[in-house]
Amino acid sequence: MNDKQQQGYDLYYRSAKNALRQGNYSQAMTDLGYCHILSKNAYRKHVKIHWMMLVIGVKSGNVKEVRVQLFRCLMAFATDPFFAGTEPNGNPGDSNYGFFDKLAIPEALQEYFQ
């Protein structure tokens, strides 16, 4: 993660924490999805984002999200050191997308990858 990506990560992580405190789980998941994209090659941060998504799944009562994030927390913890540095893509890491789905990086994040 370069300095520009770190700045974006920090911005969206703070926003996610604020949204979570306010009970706005949808906004928190969107912001964490952006953090997930920005932290693809930052092991600890990537695992942390999946953990936060799991917490939101529990708080919101979203059983599908809890199930998916339990698996992804385990996989991120076990595999990220081997895949760190792979090309980031726009997959936000939530239960609406497959583990290996490759998506375009969202317009809102383009500036962090230039």
From TrEMBL:
Q: Which domain of life is it from?
A: Bacteria
**Pfam families tied to this protein:** DUF3703 (PF12487)
Q: What is this protein called in UniProt?
A: DUF3703 domain-containing protein
In its UniProt entry, the species of origin is given as Fluctibacter corallii
